[in-house]
Design goal:
The complex is a heterodimer of chains A (588) and B (46). Chain A is mostly helical and 588 residues long. Chain A has helices at residues 4-28, 34-54, 63-69, 72-92, 99-105, 107-115, 121-126, 135-146, 149-173, 178-189, 192-198, 204-224, 227-241, 247-264, 269-298, 326-335, 364-368, 371-389, 400-412, 425-442, 448-454, 460-469, 479-486, 521-530, 540-547, 557-560, 562-565, 582-587; strands at residues 337-338, 342-343, 494-496, 509-510, 535-539, 566-572, 575-580. Chain A starts with a helix and ends with a helix. Chain B has one domain (1-46). Chain B is elongated and about 50 Å long. The chains are: A mainly alpha (588), B mainly alpha (46).
């Protein structure tokens, strides 16, 4: 390892990946019990402490002298970034309120823990997302067991974002100055897209982090040409594959790319094939536990990747149909708007314009030195951008590895020595815009409740009540309804017509794609029966969110037959729970 | 001190233009909201 940043990045990332694999092993054998996971954590902690003792932690360089050498604008960039990191840390220390996290990414680990394992066929039916790659779910399980879902948020959101920042920094540092490397990493970290991903327990940042570690090591291999570095990079790619299916694209492109590169450099066919084969096998082996789980439970190792687009399909996001839409798509990803400033319906935040400031300084001569690796990366970038563009989720968060690579290569190939010098006006302009951006991103997250919670003046239940359960205009199931649901029989299963945010609900509380199905009430009731739903929940505000949205053309067949098939059980505010009258369906 | 070449000046101008364009498109509508939030944080409510 060249420096402390590399040592910290790769050892932490690898440690997290290995912990995820070990926890998954416990999940396979049905040992998800508090004491077992706690014992595993303690053993790993002792091993880690033993390893850390062996490493000299004394900094090699004088940090104070380095700080004094930096120009004022760059000091401002460092301070703004550190401030933003602290703000996000404080955000992540408060209870999880992110919708996707409580609907899926925390609900699934919660059910894993309730079932004491990951092999549960009912869960396959209930949450297709429970079959997504498992590494990050396992870290969530770990967080929930050791403390609570807040720790899961700290690991999956905050820690992963710091490691992703470091991965960008480390990748660029090998090629150019530390100043450019830090600036590029800071611009990646402060993108609007990342702001809400950090403050959540979603999967995106973990996968991006593992994949950027892989690319950063691949770049190192390209400089050093040592096979061992290539094989270590394959470990990180394997961990990325075990975190999100998107990484399979990187495996395909890089395997083919390096094989051609070896042949082009007159390496014998056998040597080229063996090296590429070992690279691929390491990646697939590390990524395989999740695939094996799916193969065992569903017969399809990549389930549910090729099984439809989920609820978002038909909800108005699949806008791009031809390659000619590419400029429009890129504009939308960068600005979150239609050209020039028309509003765009998008379930994500834009990338922003700051990560692309190195492009005007690109030097072809500089880039030519790395043309082989740039060609491989470019093919990957083009393919992932097109794949996401044509998907039903054309959102910036799904192209983050491509964005990370664009930032890395633009910083590596940029000649900014004089333009970003000590008294650079451009440097000050960047620092100023960055300050505004951080302010803009941080302010919406500030609330008196958050401060009160962090200083211990407000309880978690009170915080959740104020901020999601009973928030005016909110659509999450409210406190009174939560209490009512908790009093329902243990075998109750509730179908949610609107959001289905089930993490804080004490009974299975799910949303299914067929709530929007056509006009056939018999088919709807039969599907409910098949899934053993006993009750239906909806809120007037939640329903209005879907039926009143001009981008969606959705209807709820059950609401047209409410009086016939539903029996009212309980209402509070605008939220209602009904029992499904299966006896009516069977009489007919 | 080495004098900046035309190409360098052009690159800096393009970058400034990009920053300005990006800021206007992404944030112009939000500037008022942000200013209001800053005042709100300082205790001024309106």
């Amino acid at each position: 390892m060249e420096g402390h940043a590399e040592a910290f990045l790769y050892s932490t990332a690898l440690g997290l990946g290995l912990i995820a694999q070990l926890v998954m092993l416990l999940g396979f054998v049905g040992l998800f019990y508090h004491n077992v996971i706690l014992s595993l954590s303690l053993i790993l902690l002792i091993v880690a402490a033993f390893c850390i003792c062996k490493v000299c932690l004394k900094p090699k360089t004088d940090l104070k002298a380095q700080w004094l050498r930096q120009p004022l604008w760059f000091k401002a960039v460092i301070v703004i970034t550190l401030l933003y990191i602290i703000i996000q840390l404080l955000n992540c220390m408060t209870p999880v309120t992110n919708g996707d996290s409580i609907a899926w990414y925390l609900s699934v680990p919660k059910h894993f823990l309730e079932n004491h394992g990951i092999l549960n066929r009912q869960l396959v039916e209930d949450y297709s997302s429970s079959n997504l790659p498992q590494n990050l779910y396992m870290l969530s399980v770990l967080g929930m067991t050791l403390r609570s879902e807040i720790l899961s948020q700290l690991i999956l959101g905050w820690l992963m974002s710091i490691l992703a920042l470091l991965a960008i920094y480390v990748a660029i540092k090998s090629f150019t100055s530390r100043r450019v490397a830090f600036l590029a990493a800071a611009l990646f970290y402060t993108m609007p897209t990342l702001s809400w991903l950090i403050y959540s327990a979603k999967m995106d940042l973990g996968y991006v982090m593992f994949e950027l570690c892989f690319w950063s090591l691949l770049l190192k291999w390209f400089l050093a040409k040592e096979d061992s570095i290539l094989y270590i990079s394959a470990i990180f790619l394997g961990l990325a594959i075990g975190s999100k299916y998107h990484s399979l694209l990187a495996l395909a492109v890089v395997s083919i790319g390096i094989f051609i590169y070896f042949l082009a450099n007159r390496l014998g066919f056998q040597k080229a094939f063996t090296t590429t084969f070992i690279f691929g096998i390491i990646s697939l082996t590390l990524g395989s536990p999740s695939l094996i789980k799916n193969l065992y439970l569903t017969g399809d190792p990549f389930y549910p990747m090729f099984k439809g687009g989920g609820f978002v399909k038909g909800e108005g996001f699949d806008l791009y149909k031809s390659v000619f839409d590419l400029p429009e798509f890129i504009y939308a990803m960068v600005f979150g708007k239609q050209f020039v400033m028309a509003p765009l319906y998008m379930a994500d935040e834009p990338l922003g314009f700051l990560p692309f400031i190195f492009f005007p300084f690109l030097s072809i001569r500089e880039l030519r030195k790395y043309k082989a690796i740039i060609t491989i990366a470019s093919v990957f970038i083009i393919l992932i951008v097109l794949a996401v563009m044509f998907s039903v989720w054309p959102f910036p968060r799904h192209i983050l590895p491509a964005v990370g690579l664009l930032i890395i290569f633009s910083a590596v190939g940029a000649r900014t020595r004089s333009s970003l010098s000590s008294r650079s006006l451009l440097g000050f302009a960047i620092a100023l815009v960055l300050l505004y951006q951080v302010f803009y991103l941080a302010i919406p997250y500030y609330s008196r409740d958050k401060v009160d919670y962090l200083i211990g003046k407000m309880s978690k239940s009170e915080y959740l009540s104020n901020n999601i359960f009973d928030k005016p205009g909110g659509t999450h199931i409210n406190s009174k309804m939560l209490s009512y649901v908790a009093s329902m029989p243990k075998d109750t299963r509730i179908l949610a017509l609107d959001d289905g945010n089930g993490y804080y609900v004490s009974r299975p509380f799910l949303k299914k794609g067929y709530v929007y199905d056509g006009t056939d009430i018999d088919s709807f009731v039969s599907k409910c029966k098949q899934d053993s739903f006993s009750h239906i929940y909806f809120s007037d505000a939640g329903i209005a969110k879907y039926t009143g949205n001009k981008n969606m053309d959705l209807e709820y067949v059950i609401l047209a037959h409410k009086d016939e098939y539903l029996e009212h059980q309980y209402s509070y505010g605008d939220q209602h729970v009904y029992r499904i009258r299966y006896e009516v369906a069977s009489n007919e | 001190m080495k004098k900046a070449s035309f190409s360098e000046i052009l690159r800096v101008i393009i970058t400034f233009a990009w920053l300005l364009y990006g800021f206007v498109v992404l944030y112009s509508v939000s500037v008022f909201k942000t200013m209001r939030s800053i005042l709100w944080l300082m205790g001024v409510d309106f």
